[in-house]
Amino acid sequence: MTVSLELLDRVRGTLASQGADPTPARVAAALRADGAVFGDSTILEVVEALRREAIGAGPLDRLLTEPGITDVLVNGPNEVYVDRGAGLERIPLRTGDEPSVRRLATRLAAAAGRRLDDSTPYVDVRLPDGTRFHAVLAPIASPGTCLSLRVPSRKVLSLQDLVTAGALPPSGVAILQDLLDARLAFLISGGTGTGKTTLLNSLLSTVPTTERLVIVEDASELRPAHPHVVRLESRPPNNEGTGEITLRDLVRQALRMRPDRLVVGEVRGPEVLDLLIALNTGHEGGCATVHANSAADVPTRLEALGSLAGLTPQAIQSQIASALHAVIHLTRDPTGRRRITEIQAVTLTPRGTITTTPAVLFTPTGAIEEGPASRHLTQLLTRGAAA
Length: 387
Fold this sequence. Notes:
This protein is an alpha/beta fold. The chain has 3 domains: 1-55, no CATH class; 59-152, 2-Layer Sandwich (Beta-Lactamase), CATH 3.30.450; 159-386, P-loop containing nucleotide triphosphate hydrolases (Rossmann fold), CATH 3.40.50.300. It has helices at 5-18, 24-33, 40-55, 61-65, 98-111, 159-164, 172-181, 196-204, 247-255, 271-279, 298-308, 313-323, 374-386, and strands at 71-75, 80-83, 88-91, 122-126, 132-136, 146-150, 186-190, 213-217, 229-233, 261-264, 287-291, 326-332, 338-348, 354-362, 368-370. The strands form 2 sheets. Strands 9-8-10-11-7-12-13-14-15 form a 9-stranded mixed β-sheet, sandwiched between helices. It has a 6-stranded antiparallel β-sheet with strand order 3-2-1-6-5-4, covered by helices on one side. It is elongated.
C-alpha cells in the first residue's frame, strides 16, 4: 500500500498538535483518531514516511539510495526527473504541493548549515551523505521551487570498470597510467555529467600509496580509493557575510601541506592562477577538472578564468605553457553513454600562443589513433618516466 499525501498530512497535523514524535505507537493512535483501521504495515509505512520527511529527503529519499541514479531533479510540485545513466527520464513520484517542496528544500539546506528563504532564495551545498544539493525557491524559479541533487557514486570505479562500461578502450588504460606515472600535469575537460569526477577518482586511485593526495573542492565529491588523502572544502559566507573560505585560500594552504599530488576538484574561478603557479613551482603531477565543450576550448576557458584573477591573456598563457602538459576530454552521446574521446597535448604555436593538439584519439569503436601531437606526448612521458 502507498500512503496518500492526504493521510500523511492528517497524521502529521495530529502529532504536531500533540508535540509528539512519530513513533509507531503514536502514529497508530493518530490513525485511530482519524477514524479508520490500518494494519501494522501501513503504520510502519507512515512512520517511515514521516521519518524521511523529518530527517531524510522526504519522497526523494529512496531515489538517493537507488543504485544507478546519478541525478534527481524536481521542477516544482510533482514533477521529478532522474538520470540512471541514459539521460533524464520523468518518473511518477508525488512530492506534494509547492509549500511541501519548499519545506523540503529549506530543511535540506538547514541540514547543511545554510539558510534558504525569500532573502536568500538559492543555495548550493553538500548534504551530510555527500549529495550535492542545489535549490532555487519560487517565484524566482518556475514552475515552482526547483531542486537539483547530484548523487555521489557509492563505488569508486577502477580504470578497468571504465573499460567494461565502454568509456575507455582496453589499450587506453596503459596510456592513462603512463601519464600518471610520468607525473604530468593534466586537466580533465568535458560538459556537465560527462564523468569528469568519475574519471579523476579512477585515476587518483591508481596513484602509488606512498604519495600524499591533497584535494581542494567546493563540495567534496572526490573519493579516490587511496590510503593517504587530505580533503579541503571551501565555505561560503555566513548570514552576516563573513567566514568565507575560497578555493584560492585552500589551494594556498594545500601547498604548505606537503602534497605529492595537488588536486583541484574543479577550476571555475580565480583559483586557476594559484593552481598554475603551484604546478610551475615544483608541484608535479597536479590535476583538476574544468568545464569545456572540447579540449581545444580549454586554453580559452583558462584565459577567461585567469581574467577573474586579474591576469591578461598573455600572462595566463605563459603560466599555462610551463604548467600544463595534457588535456583529457570526455563526452556524453545522446544515449547517455560517457566516453573518453581524446588526449590532447598542450603546445606552443609558432606565434607564441597556447593551443591543444590531438595526441591520442579514442574512437567510438574502441580503436586508438595517433594525433599530430603523439610524438610530443611520447617525449613528455619518456622525460617524466626518466626523472
